[in-house]
Every structure is written in structure tokens, then in C-alpha cells.
Amino acid sequence: MSKAKVSFKNVTIIELLVAINRRYSNLPALQIKEGDKFRAISYTELGKRTSDTAYNLKKLGVEKGDRVAILSESRPEWAIAFFGIVSCAGVTVPMDIKLSDAEMEFILNDSGTKCVFVSKKLLETILRIKPRLQFLQNIISFDETTDKGINLLKDFKVPEEEIAYRDIQPDDTALIVYTSGTTGVAKGVELTYKNLLFEIMALNKYINFSPKNNFLSILPLNHMLELTGGLIAPLYAGACVTYCNSLKPPVLIKLMQETQTTTMLCVPLVLKMFNNGIFKKADGMKPVKRKIFYLMLGLSKFLLNFNIHIGKILFSKLHKQFGGRLKCFVSGGAPLDPNVEEDFNAFGFNVLQGYGLTETSPVVTVNTFSERKYTSVGIPLKGVEIRIEKAKSEDTEGEIIVKGPNIMRGYYKKPEKTAEVLKDGWFYTGDIGHIDDDGFLYITGRVKNMIVLGGGKKVHPEEIEEVMSKSGLIKEMCVVGRKATSGLKAGTEEVFAVIVPNEDVLTEEEKKDKESVKVRIASEINNLSEALADYKRISDFMLYFGELPKTSTRKVKRKEVVEKIVSTLTGGE
User: Fold this and answer.
1) How far apart are CA 23 and CA 247, in angstroms?
2) Long-range contacts made by residues 528-533, C-beta under 8 angstroms, separation at least 24?
3) Between the N and C ends of the chain, which has fewer C-beta atoms within 10 Å?
4) What does pTM read for this prediction?
5) Which domains does the chain have, with CATH numbers?
6) What is the DSSP string of 181-199?
């Protein structure tokens, strides 16, 4: 019989951690594959090492409210460091490992970070920028190092007598999470313990983790969805979290088989890669088998219209390839292609799409096992209110605003920026959307991404990108506004696209002749554009043979695309 979950009623996050570690004691809490073997940490060991870390942080002079950063790939030590910081009442600053030296320097100085945990891979980076870090006093390495003056996590020990944890209040700051900065300078988002506890409780209600669950963690832990939904929430229920630092489908699938994964948080790109792989394999089958595959897929999709689910039976071999116990994928961070979602549901997999932002701790809405709709990002978490702020009463959509116990305290040291987005308790998300009669939220685009044409018509790039994503010729694309340079529309914005061709489907001749590729893609765009209003159609596009700049959560950095690709390669047109 599985153990009951720890109650949240009248409990602080530290008391919760202690209770969790005692309740699940010898069960595996965290693990990572190193070589051919798994290195696992039990709940008892997690509790002990958390206590060791908290005690030694205090010895290093970390006081309540001091900022302590973590700069590392996802691994068990990341979690140990985080819980140790929490236990000594420090404020965690989770770092994106893909940032430049200048960006890391800015965040560490802006936050006033006093101490940093770092992995071997990132230690050289910290040592390189250390002379310019104004507040940094101590570096703690997760791994062995010969560098002098570096503390080692493995040397952190605590006396036999139990230490008293520092007092923490619900409204104390737990984290300062710097936004990915797709549109400008990163801002530090202050999140409280109340924010964290609310999200953990809400997510467990919808995903229903248990000690029988094996959670596969593939997103970076500086991403709030992974920190709350992929670390704290599973541990609260006694589940085991396995870390994987690769997004390559073969690596993920092998790990899912070895661990019999039940739940995985992911970005849409991962599901799209899985989906492409499934269809590539199907298209390589012998004609009879290929025909059977598509007949089964069509039948499953048809029956889903009547709420009849037979995908798991029809595609049982596919389920075995994913480990055989997969309960659900939870998708977030970017819009999920409706076709991919429909395919996965037809295969018999549950895909729960949600919506949120760092400023909302992060989840606002989610599709549940019992209540979900294609293309929707779900219904609000219980206790969260959402509203559509319309520019005109007759508008069908507007800016999404959110209110609830998941809303951030504000932007660190930026009261003016905070006042711009927090008004009377409502957080203005900057996202455009609408709510249907059943309370499901739909995202249309971003206020800042909107392209305003000469005639006043407004175009959401995301809508065009979604339509064009159906093309097998297009690997990825970014739609932006560009000033027209000639004709009647000169000086006004037009719809422009940067397109990365899918080289896997190009012939050898086409790979040598880029102009022929552009002609072929132009034809594809014309065909797909029939689904769009005339004014939303792409006026011009350019090919880019490389990867578009992205954040750590795989969102395309539109501003960087314009500055580094469009302006550079089109002469600033």
C-alpha cells in the first residue's frame, strides 16, 4: 500500500521537507545515469545532505535573505543545493547555463549574489568572471577540483546534534529568477514561499504524483516549470526524479525504457521531434504495414470525436518503446502544434498542455485528464483568476491578466517595471488570448510581437508560424515585422519571415542550389496561406541555414533574429 501524501495544512516549506524525507525514507528520490549505471539518492540521504548544506552555508556566513546562485546542468546536487539554501533561509538565484559571460556577470551583480554553487563544466566560467563580481565571497563546487579557495559540496558535513532551521515566513522571498530576456535586459522575478507551496499543491492535484511514479526531468532547473512541477511536486508525493541532460530522442527513449517513465514535462519541440521520428519510421515501412499504420491512426482519431480511446491498444508497441508506463506528457513554455497534440492523443498518450510565466510561479492554466480541449491551454488552477482586458468592448480577444496566490512579489529592485505589470493585484501578462464559454483559455500571441500593418490591421506572428509548421520543408521559422522599402506600403510594416529549411528532405541538388529551395518553399507557403486572411500572408522571406537563437526553454529570441539575422543579412532593410 502506497504511503499517503504529506499534508500541506499549516506547514512551512522546511517542515514539509523534513516530513517528506522521513515519510519516504529509503525510497529513491533523485537519480542520474553516469556511464552505464544509475547513481541514486534516497529521501533519507537527501534530507541528510540538505541539512549538511544548510549548516555549512551558515558557517560560510550566509544570512537569512542572502542570495545564493546555482550554476549547473540538472543533476541531484542541484536539488541538494536548492533545498540547502531554502533550509538556511537564503534566496536561490537559479542560473541559465547557456548565458554569455556578460549576462552571467550582470545577473550575479544585479542580485548581489554572495555565494554560488557550480558544476565542473561551469567552474571555469565563474573563475573567469570572478574579478568582476562585486559581492561574491564563496564558490562551492559539486565536483572535485584542484583550484584553490573552492569549497566542495562533498565536504559539507554537520555535527551529530540536529541543527535548528531558520524561521521562514510564507511571504519571504524564496527565489529571484531572471527572465530569459527574449525582448530585452533580463529582470529578476521575486517569488515567495507562498507562491511555491501554492503551485506544488495545485500541480499535484492535477497530475497526481505518487511513490509509484518515475519522473523524467529534461528541462533546465532554472526553468520554473521544471523546478516546481519537475522537482518539488514529484518529491512531495514520494516519486523518483531521473535527470537527463539531452533532448535527443534516442537518448530520451532509452532512458524512458530503463526507468519506465510515468511523467515528463517538456517543451513542444521535444514532442515534435518524437512525432517526426514516429512518422519517419512509419513512412519507411513496407507498403502494407504503412497502410495499416495510417488506417489505425485515422480510426483512432475518428473515435476520439466520440470520446472513445483505443490508441493505447492499437499502438501498444509504440507505448512499449516509450517505457510501457507513460501516464502523461505535460507541455509548456511555448505553443504546442495542434497536429502534434492530436497525433499523440490518437496514439493513446495523454498530452496536457498548460500556460504560465515565470512571474506566475509559473503555472496559470492547465488541461487536465478529465477536462481538456485541443488548441487550448486549459482552465485556471483552483484559486487563480484570469480575465481578458479588451481594448474595445466589441473585441473578441485582449491581454490576459491574472490574479492569485501564484503572482510574484515583483521585479527585484525595479519598482517602476513592477508597477507596469502589477495593477490592483492583477498581473498583466503581455499575452493576447480569449476564454471560451467553458472557461478554457486560448493564446493568440504576444502584445510586443504584434505586427501592425499600414492599414491598421494587426497580425500575430504565432498564428502564421502555426499554419506554416505543417510543412515538412520548414524546420523552423520566425515571423517578424519589417519596414517595406518600396511601393505604396513603403515605410509601413509588412509580414516577413526567416525560414530554416529542413535539410533532411532536400535533394543533393537542392542543397547546392539555394534559389531552387527558396522557389520550392515559396510554393509551399502559397499553398498553406490559403488558410490565412490575405493581410496575414507573408510578403517576403529569407532562408537561414543555421539554428535560430533561442532561450534555454527553446523559445525563439525574436529581437535577436531581427538584430543579428534580418538586419545583417538583408542590409538593414
Assistant:
1) 33
2) 528/467, 528/468, 528/470, 528/471, 529/467, 531/467, 532/463, 532/464, 532/467
3) N
4) 0.85
5) 15-168 (3.40.50.12780), 264-445 (3.40.50.12780), 451-569 (3.30.300.30)
6) -SSSS--EEEEEHHHHHHH
